[in-house]
């Protein structure tokens, strides 16, 4: 177990290291002078020089890379030149919106998707099962941003139950803030729930074909007890893996959904800094998103080891 | 104690029903053992699963299975659940995959005890130690908390036996319990089963496609071919004087010491008729050396060759003479 | 072959998927020669009109004909999908085949590289590319193509390793043929079924991703009509003209569903083992 843990954490760190090199190289080496890009071609020379100094363009590449990484480790991400504030502060504020949104969406999609998939598997080859499969097909075919627009059309424009966009901030109180996140969360979650349902269904059906299910029935367990006591935990192994992967796609999905709903989270920040060519923000933001995605995968792998004893004893 | 009469297993097809097992009948007393042999696809597993009420998909059983006065085929699914693992238990061919990989073996052995005997977790755990010890798992108390993947194939099959024994069933069905194991382990598991039968007075039904494996350890024998019973009788009699040509061919196919390689590989030429095919003649006619015009007229009835030794062949009992 | 056709006819999802995809392709081809109106012709006087006899699916905020834009937009979806899948297929299959041909450290390196790719989802890659190249259709193709590479590499390696263990490949080996030659002559033709299935499904993913990227303004740029861009514009006017949001979304969903159904169906028909594994 310890060896497994160490190996996974080492892979995690190596992945982050390589990703940081890729991001750094892409943004700082390929396009030429970053200060020039940020300020535009007709920037005044003294402003250009000042920014060049601040970015440290005159220093060697390797040194700049390690300055960046060294800063990241202690939480210093440099300064945004459009917002004139530390990038880390900027990101923390935005994370306070995006993370709750992603978690809310994850919660909704798991709570809906997994039970629906189990229900379909338990009713395999009945109309209920086919219904769930159609729901699953729709889920992978419908773009979440379109679904978001449809939700706005129905629930804010026609019914007026929820705001069509914007975010009042947590200072405005818990309920108004959550209310602004409900439609965005559902537009992410329903589509994802359909995918979870498909995954859970096929995971359970796969386990139902295993020999030990017959053993459980031969012991005298009813169909239902067999499902609950023997099938579910085994099915959880593939479900957690793929749902974990889907959670990172859900995090990335917030980038799109924040655009639709005009929510000031990380996703909006990506586009704002991209159009303003605020490369300091873009670089750190992409690094952060990549780190989150890789971290989710690490957590999934560790969970996996908790559920599946075969992994725990690897190397015995 | 166990009486099976005209057991039929049928697959309900879209256009017609397909018969998988036809009119199997036998009786078995407490403390006795029955061997069921036949080549692959002859319906042995289907017969066993019918006894357990665990036939897959759209496959149904009809006829009568009477266990100590209780008609199993008349029970509801819920009632059958209280019989399975309690009065009738079963072990399977694949010890590697028949145990739940994410539960400790202690928990898996204790489960039927909690379910059927209403034991507490702690009591069931104590009993599980005793059972594992009985089936020859060394250091049972400590092995309670290991997972199946930490055991060898033979040990896993012992665990399966412990699970099956847990509620002292009246009948134990073992479907090819040693096929997946290597020869020395095979022997040990069969010896264990034999000991358990004489110790607990349960009835044992043991299935194999290999006559040599079970021939010496069972009291009675059922030979199946294409879903039909073709011969039934006391094991030693069937062995000494096979009454059906198919049985004698199975006996010839057993490898023995001192056989040359070509002799050892001798198998029965031809293939078994597909299940569900309507037979207007003897089902073995296509592969039988002794086939004659009469054999093709109608399926042969059971012919008695000795007391309680019958074979479905018009030349039953004359097989040995004719072959030699 | 005839049993393939028979199976295909009997397979409902293959049927529905085939019809939807054929529809998509014919609309794209038709739009090369004919659309009811010019997809770029602006007519402010007739803006935001609902469906009518003149404009079957209505007009947008600049008075452009929605049906014509949808028809032309299908071209971009197909081009991006095709090129992105081709990039992934060519590079990914080559890498996967190399891994399975030479095993050892080559395989290890290629597989670790494809594990690493998890860190870069399509949108993040597209953002990075946009920062470097500026927005455009090429970004979409590259971002989606790069995303496809490790998927094809993994599938190819898995299926090829399995094929290497089969008798006819071993037989070819004993004839003294080189490993690379065996891969090309025996292994790759044998795993083409699995690759076709995967390519179909990734084509669907590409259409969805292209729409998302041009919705975000990272992909195809105006005046080139694209479904994602249309939805972006529609969003502003959704209260006034809901048809602007409904039709492009339907076009995306139906195209994606068509390809997915074909993928599922092909999996059943070509490779029943694979169908069970997934
Ligand atoms: N799930 C099923 N659905 C339909 N037919 C089945 C199913 N399982 C088995 N059969 C058919 O039932 C017949 C009897 O199978 P059975 O498994 O009882 O054979 P067996 O004697 O146990 O053979 P083996 O030695 O291979 O285990 C076979 O011909 C098989 O084709
Ligand atoms: S009845 Fe005829 S064909 Fe059938 S086993 Fe006897 S001799 Fe052979
Ligand atoms: Mg069998």
Structure, described:
The complex is a heterotrimer of chains A (316), B (324) and C (278). Chain A is mostly helical and 316 residues long. Chain A has helices at 2-29, 34-39, 45-55, 61-73, 87-122, 127-141, 144-158, 174-208, 211-218, 223-261, 266-275, 279-307, 309-312; strands spanning 79-80, 85-86. In chain A, helix 6 packs across helix 8 (174-208) and helix 7 packs across helix 10 (223-261). The N and C termini of chain A lie close together (10 Å). Chain B is α/β, with parallel strands linked by helices and 324 residues long. Chain B is globular and about 65 Å long. By secondary structure, chain C is mainly alpha-helical. Classes of the chains: A mainly alpha (316), B alpha/beta (324), C mainly alpha (278). Chains in contact: A-B, A-C. At the A-B interface, helix 9 and helix 10 of A face helix 2, helix 3 and helix 6 of B. Magnesium ion binds next to helix 1 of chain B.
Can you give me a brief rundown of this structure?
Chain A is built from 13 helices and two strands; from the N terminus they run ααααββααααααααα. Chain A is an all-alpha fold. Chain B is of the alpha/beta class and 324 residues long.
List the helices and strands and how they pair.
The complex is a heterotrimer of chains A (316), B (324) and C (278).
Chain A: H1 2-29, H2 34-39, H3 45-55, H4 61-73, E1 79-80, E2 85-86, H5 87-122, H6 127-141, H7 144-158, H8 174-208, H9 211-218, H10 223-261, H11 266-275, H12 279-307, H13 309-312
Antiparallel strand pairs in A: 1-2
Chain B: E1 2-12, E2 17-28, E3 33-37, H1 44-52, E4 59-67, E5 70-71, H2 77-83, E6 88-91, H3 105-117, H4 121-134, H5 140-143, H6 153-165, E7 171-175, H7 183-200, E8 203-208, H8 211-214, E9 220-225, E10 228-234, H9 235-240, H10 245-252, H11 261-264, E11 303-306, E12 309-311, H12 319-323
Parallel strand pairs in B: 3-8, 3-9, 6-7, 7-8
Antiparallel strand pairs in B: 1-2, 1-4, 4-5, 9-10, 10-12, 11-12
Chain C: H1 2-10, H2 12-33, H3 66-102, H4 104-116, H5 122-133, H6 137-164, H7 167-174, H8 179-216, H9 227-236, H10 243-270, H11 272-277
Helix pairs in contact in C: 2-3, 2-10, 3-4, 3-6, 3-8, 4-6, 5-6, 6-8, 7-8, 8-9, 8-10, 9-10
């Amino acid at each position: 177990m310890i060896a497994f843990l160490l190996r996974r954490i080492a892979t995690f760190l190596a992945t982050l290291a390589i990703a940081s090199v890729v991001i750094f190289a892409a943004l700082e080496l390929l396009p030429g002078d970053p200060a020039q890009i940020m300020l535009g071609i007709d920037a005044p020379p003294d402003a250009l020089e000042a920014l060049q100094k601040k970015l440290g363009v005159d220093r060697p590449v390797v040194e700049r890379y390690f300055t960046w990484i060294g800063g990241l480790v202690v939480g210093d991400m440099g300064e945004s030149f459009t917002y004139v504030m530390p990038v880390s502060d900027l990101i923390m504020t935005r994370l306070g919106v995006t993370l709750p949104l992603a978690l809310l969406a994850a919660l909704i999609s798991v709570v809906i998707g997994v039970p629906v998939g189990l229900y379909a598997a338990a009713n395999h080859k009945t109309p209920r099962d086919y219904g769930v499969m159609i729901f699953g097909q729709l889920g992978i075919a419908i773009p979440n941003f379109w679904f978001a627009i449809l939700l706005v059309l129905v629930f804010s424009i026609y019914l007026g139950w929820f705001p069509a966009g914007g975010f009042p901030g947590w200072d405005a109180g818990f309920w108004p803030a959550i209310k602004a996140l409900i439609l965005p969360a559902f537009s992410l979650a329903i589509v994802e729930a359909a995918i979870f349902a498909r995954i859970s269904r096929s995971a359970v059906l796969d386990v139902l074909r295993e020999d030990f299910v017959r053993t459980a029935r031969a012991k005298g367990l009813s169909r239902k007890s067999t499902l609950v006591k023997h099938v579910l935990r085994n099915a959880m192994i593939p479900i957690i893996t793929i749902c974990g992967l889907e959670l990172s796609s859900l995090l990335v999905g917030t980038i799109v959904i924040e655009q639709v709903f005009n929510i000031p989270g990380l996703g909006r920040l990506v586009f704002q800094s991209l159009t303003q060519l605020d490369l300091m923000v873009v670089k750190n933001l992409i690094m952060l998103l990549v780190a989150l995605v890789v971290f989710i995968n690490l957590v999934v792998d560790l969970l996996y080891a908790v559920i599946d004893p075969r992994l725990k004893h690897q190397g015995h | 104690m166990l009486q099976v009469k005209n057991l039929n297993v049928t697959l309900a097809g879209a256009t017609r029903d397909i018969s998988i097992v036809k009119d199997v009948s036998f009786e078995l007393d407490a403390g006795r053992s029955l061997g069921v042999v036949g080549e692959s696809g002859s319906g042995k597993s289907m017969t066993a699963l019918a006894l357990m009420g665990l036939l897959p998909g759209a496959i149904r059983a009809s006829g009568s299975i009477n266990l100590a006065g209780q008609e199993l085929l008349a029970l509801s699914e819920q009632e059958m659940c209280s019989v399975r693992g309690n009065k009738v238990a079963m072990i399977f061919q694949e010890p590697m995959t028949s145990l739940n990989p994410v539960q400790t073996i202690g928990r898996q052995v204790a489960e039927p005890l909690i379910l059927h005997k209403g034991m507490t977790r702690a009591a069931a755990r104590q009993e599980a130690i005793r059972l594992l010890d009985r089936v020859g798992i060394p250091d049972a108390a400590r092995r309670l908390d290991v997972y199946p993947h930490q055991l060898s194939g033979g040990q896993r099959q012992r665990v399966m036996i412990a699970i099956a024994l847990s509620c002292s069933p009246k009948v134990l069905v073992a479907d090819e319990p040693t096929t997946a194991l290597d020869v020395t382990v095979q022997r040990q598991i069969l010896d264990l089963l034999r000991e358990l039968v004489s110790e607990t007075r349960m009835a044992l039904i043991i299935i194999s496609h290999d006559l040599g494996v079970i021939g010496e350890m069972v009291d009675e024998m059922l030979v199946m071919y294409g879903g039909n019973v073709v011969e039934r009788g006391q094991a030693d009699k069937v062995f000494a004087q096979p009454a059906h040509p198919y049985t004698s061919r199975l006996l010839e196919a057993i490898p023995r010491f001192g056989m040359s390689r070509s002799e050892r590989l001798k198998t029965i030429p031809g293939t078994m008729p597909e299940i569900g095919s309507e037979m207007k003649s003897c089902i073995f006619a296509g592969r039988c050396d002794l086939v004659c015009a009469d054999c093709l007229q109608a399926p042969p009835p059971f012919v008695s060759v000795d007391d309680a030794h019958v074979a479905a062949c018009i030349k039953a009992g004359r097989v040995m003479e004719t072959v030699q | 072959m005839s049993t393939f056709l028979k199976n295909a006819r009997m397979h409902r999802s293959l049927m529905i998927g085939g019809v939807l995809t054929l529809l998509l392709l014919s609309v794209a081809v038709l739009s090369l020669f004919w659309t009811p109106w010019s997809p770029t012709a602006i007519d402010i006087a007739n803006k935001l009109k609902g469906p009518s006899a003149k404009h079957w699916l209505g007009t947008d905020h600049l008075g452009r004909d929605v049906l014509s834009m949808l028809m032309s937009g299908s071209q971009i979806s197909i081009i991006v999908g095709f090129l992105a899948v081709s990039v992934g297929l060519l590079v990914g299959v080559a890498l996967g085949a190399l891994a399975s041909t030479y095993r050892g450290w080559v395989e290890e390196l290629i597989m670790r590289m494809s594990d690493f790719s998890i860190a870069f989802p399509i949108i993040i890659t597209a953002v990075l590319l946009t920062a470097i190249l500026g927005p455009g259709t090429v970004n979409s193709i590259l971002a989606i193509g790069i995303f496809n590479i490790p998927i094809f590499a993994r599938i190819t390696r898995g299926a090829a390793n399995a094929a290497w263990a089969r008798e006819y490949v071993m037989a070819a080996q004993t004839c003294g043929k080189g490993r690379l030659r065996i891969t090309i002559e025996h292994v790759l033709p044998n795993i083409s079924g699995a690759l076709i299935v995967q390519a179909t499904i990734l084509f669907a993913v590409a259409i969805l991703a292209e729409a998302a990227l041009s919705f975000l303004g990272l992909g195809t740029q105006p005046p080139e009509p694209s479904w994602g861009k249309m939805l972006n514009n529609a969003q502003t006017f959704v209260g006034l003209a809901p048809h602007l949001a409904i039709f492009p979304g339907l076009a995306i969903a139906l195209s994606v569903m068509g390809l997915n159904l074909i993928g599922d169906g092909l999996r059943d028909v070509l490779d029943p083992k694979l169908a069970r594994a997934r």
